[in-house]
Task: inverse folding
């Protein structure tokens, strides 16, 4: 593979990835995978990678940040930073979308969060998710990728 300008693997043009909330949280909470997630999120910010998440996932991130002591300033900073992401689209989901997701809860034995993610991916035709959540591994039609996959080995 060619080396991309961002330091990530050059995966070609056009691939769209669903970005799970745990990717943002790894960086925001300075967890074990913060460095890899930071590199991935910088690539999204700079437009070197294309991703999508939902307003539901953004709200989930904010709730967890607040539970870990984040105040209005930290939440505002996180939200404001998302406006600079050239490669990230944030999808709003409707009440009917949420109702459809409950069907996937039953059909695929998922919790609501994962079922809503799956519904959003189907709605957009996205086949790959960047996530540390192994529950997505049981869904045959999507591929789960961890951020470390994108890091260019030197």
Result:
């Amino acid at each position: 593979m060619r080396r991309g300008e961002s330091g990530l693997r050059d995966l070609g043009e056009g691939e769209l990835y669903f970005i799970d909330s745990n990717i943002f949280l790894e960086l925001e909470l300075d967890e074990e995978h913060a460095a890899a997630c930071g590199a991935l999120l910088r690539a999204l910010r700079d437009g070197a990678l294309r991703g999508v998440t939902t307003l539901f996932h953004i709200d989930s991130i904010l709730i967890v940040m607040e539970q870990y002591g984040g105040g209005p300033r930290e939440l505002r900073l996180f939200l404001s930073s998302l406006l600079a992401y050239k490669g990230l689209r944030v999808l709003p989901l409707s009440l009917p979308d949420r109702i459809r997701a409950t069907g996937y809860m039953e059909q695929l034995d998922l919790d609501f969060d994962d079922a809503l993610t799956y519904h959003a991916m189907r709605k957009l035709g996205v086949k790959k998710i960047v996530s540390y959540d192994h529950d997505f591994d049981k869904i045959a039609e999507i591929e789960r990728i961890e951020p470390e996959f994108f890091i260019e080995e030197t």
In short: The chain is about 45% helix and 10% strand. The first helix runs from residue 21 to 28. Confidence is low (pLDDT under 50) at residues 1-12. Residues 17 and 32 are 22 Å apart (CA to CA).
